[in-house]
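User: Structure with flavin mononucleotide, tokens only please.
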Amino acid sequence: MKVITVFYSLYGHTFKLAQSVHNGASSIQGVESQLLKVEEFESVLERTADSEHAKAVRDQQKEIPVCTVDDLRAADAVIFGSPTRYGNMAAQMKQLIDSTASLWLKGEMEGKPAGVFTSTASTHGGQETTLITMMIPLIHLGMIMVGVPYSVQGMIHTEARGGTPYGPSTIAGPKGELAPLEGDLKIAEALGKRVAEVAVKLRG
Ligand SMILES: Cc1cc2nc3c(=O)[nH]c(=O)nc-3n(C[C@H](O)[C@H](O)[C@H](O)COP(=O)(O)O)c2cc1C
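Assistant:
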């Protein structure tokens, strides 16, 4: 049973959530969990060449393989993480999803559980819109969306932090100065576990 967590993260916040999602999936018996990244655009590499922060984050991710269409085909479940870009997923992640026509044509993603997670700069920067719009192409592919139930500890809260029923999230701050809080990471771990558990149950 293979569960993959595929993410894009320019400044490292979504990456931290991805690590927790991956750890959660790994903790389920019989599951092989793998962390994969999406391919970066050449234009972004050029534009951020002088950013020490972006370079450091890329270095942290350098051993993580880039997700291919074959990785998606081989996975029993997939959890997708993207930073928010104008209330929506990043184009790098959309590019991966838009490369799945061959999978869609043969229904190869149908019936596989999926989850989504995100990071925003600000509290009301569009976490829910990103998470819900990330689900739309996954539903077209026939995947079965798995969210985070309110029985997960920390889901009912009123502070400025992440954690939505549509998927885990975190607030990076306008300059990326914040780090995911322990509660954000726990909710990310809970999604990884839940998607993996659903995959195991569906396999029977
Ligand atoms: C083009 C662009 C659009 C963005 N749009 C939003 C937005 O709609 N809402 C928001 O809160 N943050 C927005 N951000 C900030 C990113 O969401 C933030 O940098 C990201 O969550 C950090 O995640 P990362 O560390 O994984 O890259 C935007 C950033 C860029 C570059």
